[in-house]
Write a structure and sequence with these properties.
5 strands
């Protein structure tokens, strides 16, 4: 077991009576304790120096994206599904060979789906956008392949959004492409 630096040990020794006291304090009284610890650390930043030196900031290459596998699986699923999602023969609107493509999964009797379609129709007039309209029940297998279970859902070439999205979010995506 690694030995603690003497400054860290001193800090922890000074902190432990305060922590024991904090356990007996009501929740609303813990904030002043936190403020006292914060003030102490601000006044004595050298107390944290051994911890900073020991751990240091992580290198950019060492950062771990805990969602990397999920993201790669989604991108692979999108690549496999693209011909079925963006087939020009499917119902939709906008130019067949538009620069931007979105597949909108909807359900009957879904008020948010009607709003989503209306907003996309407006966006298709301002952007080079083709929207494919897919009923989730009619295209259930495709929705299942993409793990979509919520209507409306928006599927782009490189991203999926579940649930209603404000038009400004969709517009921001279209502008960045």
């Amino acid at each position: 077991m690694p030995r603690l630096n003497s400054a860290v040990a001193l800090f922890l020794g000074l902190l432990s009576p305060l922590c024991a006291l904090a356990q007996d304090l009501p929740t609303q009284s813990r904030s002043p304790l936190g403020e006292a610890i914060r003030a102490t650390l601000i006044e004595n930043p050298d107390l944290l120096a051994p911890l900073r030196a020991q751990n240091g900031p992580p290198e950019r290459s060492a950062l771990i994206n805990i969602y990397a596998d999920d993201m790669q699986a989604d991108l692979s699923a999108l690549a496999r599904a693209a011909p079925r999602l963006f087939d020009p023969a499917l119902p939709g609107f906008g130019a067949q060979q538009a620069a931007h493509r979105i597949a909108l999964f909807t359900r009957k009797e879904c008020a948010e789906c009607a709003v989503a379609e209306s907003e996309l129709r407006t966006l298709s007039q301002a952007y080079d956008l083709r929207v494919t309209l897919l009923d989730m029940d009619e295209y259930a297998e495709l929705a299942r392949d993409l793990d979509l279970d919520l209507a409306p859902s928006y599927v782009f070439g490189d991203m999926m959004l579940r649930g209603a999205m404000p038009a400004i979010v969709l517009e921001r995506y279209l502008r960045r492409k």
